[in-house]
UniProtKB/TrEMBL annotation, chain A:
This is ABC transporter permease. The lineage of its organism: Bacteria, Pseudomonadati, Pseudomonadota, Alphaproteobacteria, Acetobacterales. CDD domains: TM_PBP2 (cd06261). The chain crosses the membrane at residues 71-94, 106-124, 130-149, 187-213, 233-255. Belongs to the binding-protein-dependent transport system permease family.
UniProtKB/TrEMBL annotation, chain B:
It comes from the Bacteria. It comes from Roseomonas populi. It is found in: Cell membrane. PANTHER family: DIPEPTIDE TRANSPORT SYSTEM PERMEASE PROTEIN DPPB-RELATED (PTHR43163), PEPTIDE ABC TRANSPORTER PERMEASE PROTEIN (PTHR43163:SF3). This is ABC transporter permease. InterPro entries: BPD_transp_1_N, MetI-like, MetI-like_sf. Residues 96-301 form the ABC transmembrane type-1 domain.
From TrEMBL, chain C:
Pfam families: SBP_bac_5. InterPro entries: Peptide/Ni-bd, SBP_5, SBP_5_dom, TAT_signal. This is ABC transporter substrate-binding protein. It is found in: Periplasm. Keywords: Signal, Transport. It comes from Roseomonas populi. Residues 97-453 form the Solute-binding protein family domain. Belongs to the bacterial solute-binding protein 5 family.
């Protein structure tokens, strides 16, 4: 249990740090879009900790400012997917046969696709931009949340207290709201944390394939895409945004593991 | 038992039909089609566009297009690539074999690395080995695979002065060239999957360690190695094998970006090219294969569990 | 078939002079040298050439297929020119030279072109080429029902006759001085009669070639490679020098560089000319740079929002500092353009100094915007295409340059398929573009800028004066007069701004030392491999 506590502490601290960077990047770095041809592709130095990119922009500043874009998109998408998927899951778990069957088959159909392929198709259809990326990621993860919430709702709905509430004459809606939501919500919330690192990787992969946010918005996946042309000539372009991705995913994973350990 | 199996099979079929329908519609919702790629910035008169549309059958109602396609699939004909004019079945199978090889190689690497790590960590939860393995799994599961691949490319170039070969060589032509070509992608994917294996094995073995018969065996004075060899491995072998199926499905779906990065002509790159080129038949064929493989693996896993676990058998 | 008598026949010397003397055009030219003038095409012969060996070429842009008639993409043409040949060759000088034709003659009225075919030309299928094959091929391309993107280029052809096995007579519905350039290698390849008669034709072209070119297709593996072997019955005795060519499809520009450095490839054309600096100082690599026929441009849709007003388009043109955009996009490794691609500037271009809207002039730009009733500017989407990397930095730079006018740009990235869809349906709005041409002003401008239905007018420009000049240019055979007309046309483009041609990226080819006698063609196509060889 000590380890769980340590992991939780580290996870929370890292998450808090990323949250702060995302919300107030100006505290950590100067502007991310100052172009200067004179200092292009400079290696990391005391002045530019992470070096400079093709157009002479400060990679450190791009990484810091990219946090808000990247993590924001993933965060909002996961939250949205949690709400929609969770809601539908509870509905299916409660409403019974036909709605359940129809929704479950749909969810299975979506889950049958590799998430990245689904992401590429959706991002191509919807077009570029942060909003559309959020939507694409949300659609990928709705069925996952749906399954988790449905299972939890099924379990809850068979519990004695729900049966008792029914017997006491509460209406279906009231039961749903009061009891089931209260018990399903934490499961969905936990799932949000668990899925965060996975969604982060999908977001980065889409950015890497050029389907992410358009320039000049800083974004980790987009930075990795730009870095490809200088993979061996200027490896810092790939290393630092990737390391930021890795660290953010580690933070979320730590938090997720610790929460999961507590939950069970 | 039979009834449960049939029910699962039925559900899988419904999923399959739905999934293919979804792909069919969604890919056609993406603006642009094969004709755009063919004509480029050389628009002709409307007659020639109409002629091309008719040639590819794109002028027919969507329902007709879908039913024709589905009917052909049932007869074993996946259609013809709009871009290359070649049979989709051949294109998709060629690509699938490449990806399957990478998937199996990755599986082998990740089992060879991940299982021992997981076992080492599981013997003494909280020990030094456990902490280190924990760190490994955390990094492995968190790093985007394509980024791991990029780092490997950088390291290979700067340390070894080595770069991957230009062309994927099938193992039947030259095993050495083949291995040279898939080494980096397999390592990149293997880092992730070895972490997954280590974590899974650790959980399984840690859970087993707490079980009475293991405790009893150790109390009888049997050394840890013997307990491991005799009980643990035997008991976690089956979950590990079924886990392999899941991982394989995950690899097959997840290689898209890695194949793109390393220029491997596998299923993922074929899928991506088909989406970008609006080659509907290839996209549908490739996704059909991906989905069928995923459903089959899941079915086999369920069956395995049903056979070994009497509780599931009754369900 | 009523045909006028051929009038004009120029000997090879005159044709070469026309090429050297800047202009040329559709006038004419034959060539009855020892080898029918063939030593002049594809670059020089090399008496020291050593036969044998396979040359490996890295390409980052893969052709969807190798069909010479049904693909507009440059990636396709770049490769199929080695397998399929037209009657003529698009010489870098801007003059079409005989290729499968041995000579060409034009009638007085400019309506009838008579081609005498080279003898002993064999197809990869083994058959000998006759005039019937030429007639079949060009009739196929120009028939809209066959859906070839080349149909519009062949639109002035009224009838093709094959009076005997070695003569092809092309009759036009109106004079078209660019006909010889049209019958070159983009859509003018000659294939055997009935090549497309069966439904399997398309599949076949992905598996074997049926042209007359120096190389024949051996294997095409999508997403991986294209392998070609020397055609043993090639009509040019002793050529090609190479036994084969292997095109390796590379996932991105960086892997091409790595492959060059580690000597896994012999030759590559850099998709990003600025990558040359990453190879500087690398022993054993020959890096050559040349002007190209490609143009990176900014297109303005005359039907789109504020762009409807020519004053707004002019203001934008006056605010753009092309050199700064080129610096940001390709580190300056190119040529800033006026109204024509770099490799045509000398032969066909209006002098940039004679064009009033090519130098940044903020004061005039602001005045024009104010005149248009937009003193405070406006907000507009600027479209860039995913995968065209120069567009990202160009967009950022352009946004900065237009900001002082109060024009706020939102960069939208769209996928190529989506972009092409909008483009062809003439709904291109305000977008970057990247396109190439054969070295002829009619082929360059007509389709893009002439109003419908004769042209495609993608930019909804609909300019009567422009139309008039384009029609005049097409009908005029005299090279000097022709140039005057196209210079006039460029002045109209400069004044009314349907497009801002930004820059031509240099064609940077990188070859290992052992690659000899490779001449880079300004189209960026692989013609040069027909005469390249590998030193021991």
């Amino acid at each position: 249990m000590r380890r769980v506590r340590i992991e939780l502490a580290i996870g929370l601290a890292l998450c808090a740090l990323f949250l702060l960077i995302s919300l107030a990047p100006a505290l950590f770095a100067g502007p991310s879009d100052a172009v200067s041809v004179a200092r292009r592709l400079e290696a990391p130095s005391a002045e530019f900790w992470f070096g400079t990119d093709e157009t002479g922009r400060d990679v450190y500043a791009r990484v810091i400012h990219g946090a808000g874009t990247t993590l924001g998109i993933v965060g909002v998408a996961i939250g949205l997917a949690g709400l929609i998927g969770g809601g539908l899951g509870v509905l299916a778990g409660f409403a019974g046969r036909w709605a359940d069957l129809a929704l479950s088959r749909m969810a299975d159909a979506l889950l049958a696709f590799p998430p990245i392929i689904l992401g590429v198709i959706l991002a191509s259809t919807l077009g570029s931009g942060a909003g559309n990326l959020v939507l694409a990621l949300a659609i990928i993860y709705v069925p996952v949340f749906y399954r988790v919430a449905r299972a939890a709702a099924l379990m809850e709905s068979n519990r004695a207290y729900v049966e008792a509430a029914r017997a006491l004459g509460y209406g279906e809606a009231a039961i749903l709201l009061r009891h089931v939501l209260r018990n399903v919500a934490p499961v969905v919330a936990l799932q949000c944390v668990i899925l965060f690192p996975l969604a982060l990787q999908i977001q980065a992969a889409l950015g890497f394939l050029g389907l992410g946010v358009p320039p000049p918005t800083p974004d980790w996946g987009a930075s990795l895409q730009e870095s490809r042309n200088y993979l061996t000539a200027a490896p810092w372009l790939a290393l630092f945004p990737g390391a930021a991705l890795l660290l953010a995913a580690v933070a979320a994973s730590l938090l997720g593991r610790a929460l999961q350990a507590r939950h069970t | 038992m039979i009834e449960a199996l049939l029910r699962r099979l039925g559900a899988a079929l419904v999923t399959l039909v739905l999934a293919t329908g979804v792909v069919f519609l969604v890919i056609r919702a993406v603006p642009g089609d094969i004709i755009g790629e063919m004509l480029g910035q050389s628009a002709g008169d409307p007659a020639s566009e109409a002629a091309l549309r008719a040639f590819f059958g794109l002028d027919r109602p969507l329902v007709t297009q879908y039913l024709t396609w589905a009917g052909d699939v049932l007869r074993g004909d996946l259609g013809t690539s709009m871009r290359q004019g070649l049979p989709v079945l051949g294109i998709v199978l060629d690509a699938f074999l490449v990806t399957l090889e990478i998937g199996l190689a990755t599986l082998l690497v990740s089992i060879l690395v991940g299982v021992p790590l997981g076992l080492a960590a599981g013997v003494r939860p909280g020990g030094v080995a456990d902490m280190m393995v924990e760190g490994f799994t955390l990094l492995g599961l968190s790093a985007p695979v394509f980024w791991t691949g990029m780092v490997l490319l950088i390291l290979a170039d700067s340390w070894l002065g080595w770069s991957p070969p230009l062309i994927y060589t099938p193992p039947s032509v030259s095993l050495a060239d083949n291995l040279e070509g898939i080494a980096l992608p397999v390592l990149a994917l293997g880092f992730l999957q070895a972490a997954a294996y280590a974590q899974f094995t650790r959980q399984q073995s840690a859970a087993l360690m707490r079980q009475d018969f293991v405790r009893a065996a150790r109390a009888r004075g049997l050394p840890a190695r013997v307990v491991y060899g005799r009980h643990l491995l035997r008991n976690i072998a089956i979950p590990l094998v079924t886990y392999a199926g899941l991982i394989l499905v995950q690899i097959l779906g997840g290689v898209v970006v890695v194949e793109t990065l390393f220029g491997i002509p596998g299923l993922g790159r074929t899928l991506l090219a088909a989406i970008q080129g609006r080659d509907y038949p290839v996209l549908q064929g490739a996704l059909l294969l991906t989905v069928v493989v995923a459903l089959l693996v899941n079915l086999v896993i369920d069956l395995t569990y049903a056979l070994i676990d009497p509780r599931v058998r009754g369900a | 078939m009523p045909l006028s008598t051929p009038r004009l026949t120029i000997d090879r010397r005159t044709a070469l002079l026309a090429g050297a003397g800047l202009l040329g055009g559709g006038l004419a030219l034959p060539a009855r040298g020892q080898d029918g003038g063939a030593e002049a095409v594809y670059g020089p012969d090399d008496p020291q050439a050593r036969r044998g060996g396979t040359l490996t070429v890295a390409i980052a842009n893969e052709p969807p297929n190798l069909d010479p008639f049904h693909q507009a993409g440059d990636a396709r043409t770049a490769i199929t020119v080695l397998m399929y040949q037209g009657l003529m060759f698009e010489d870098a000088s801007g003059v079409a030279k005989p290729l499968l034709a041995e000579s060409m003659a034009v009638s007085d009225d400019g309506l009838t072109y008579t081609f005498t075919l080279r003898r002993g030309v064999r197809f990869h299928t083994g058959r000998t080429m006759t005039s019937a094959d030429v007639k079949y091929s060009y009739d196929y391309v120009r028939n809209p029902a066959n859906g070839s993107p080349g149909a519009l280029d062949f639109g002035t052809i009224a009838e093709i006759g094959a009076p005997d096995d070695h003569t092809v007579v092309v009759r036009l519905s109106e004079p078209n001085a660019s006909l010889p350039m049209t019958l070159t290698n983009r859509f003018g390849g000659v294939v055997p009669v009935d090549t497309f008669a069966t439904p399997q034709a398309r599949a076949r072209l992905s598996q074997q070639s049926v042209g007359t070119g120096p190389f024949m297709l051996q294997e095409f593996r999508p997403q991986s490679h294209i392998r070609m072997a020397r055609f043993p019955n090639y009509w040019r005795q002793g050529q090609p020098y190479l036994d084969g060519v292997l095109f390796s499809v590379q996932p991105n520009a960086a892997s091409v560089l790595v492959a060059l450095r580690s000597r896994r490839v012999d030759l590559a054309l850099l998709a990003r000319p600025q990558d040359a600096e990453q190879l500087q100082g690398q022993a054993g690599l020959n890096i050559t740079s040349a002007s190209s026929l490609r143009q990176c441009s900014l297109d303005l849709d005359g039907n789109h929002a504020q762009l409807k007003d020519p004053r707004v388009r002019q203001a934008i043109a006056l605010a753009v500092d092309k050199d700064a955009v080129m610096q940001a996009s390709i580190s300056g490794k190119g040529k800033v353009l006026g109204t024509i691609p770099a490799a045509m500037q000398e032969s066909w271009g209006a002098p940039i100094s004679a064009l009033p809207n090519q130098k940044p002039d903020m004061a005039r730009a602001k005045a024009l915007l104010a005149e248009a009733g937009l003193p405070d500017g406006f907000t507009m989407d600027l479209i860039s295409i995913i995968g065209f990397e120069w567009m990202d930095p160009a967009g950022v730079t352009l946004a900065q340059q237009l900001a002082p006018l109060g024009i706020r740009l939102n960069i939208q990235r769209v996928e190529l398929g989506v972009w092409l869809n909008a483009y062809r349906s003439r709904n291109m709005r305000f977008t970057f573009n990247d396109w190439g041409t054969q070295p002829d002003p009619h082929i360059l401008y007509y389709r893009h800028f002439h109003s419908q239905p004769r042209g495609a007018d993608f930019r909804n420009w609909n300019n009567a004066e422009g139309d008039r000049l384009l029609d005049a240019g097409m009908a005029t055979a005299d090279p000097a007069r022709r140039k005057e007309i196209y210079v006039e046309f460029q002045k109209v483009v400069d004044a009314s701004v349907p497009t801002v041609m930004l820059f031509s990226p240099d064609l940077v080819s990188v070859a290992q030392q052992r690659v000899r006698n490779y001449a880079q063609h300004p189209t960026g196509w692989w013609f040069g491999l027909a005469k390249a060889w590998i030193a021991a």
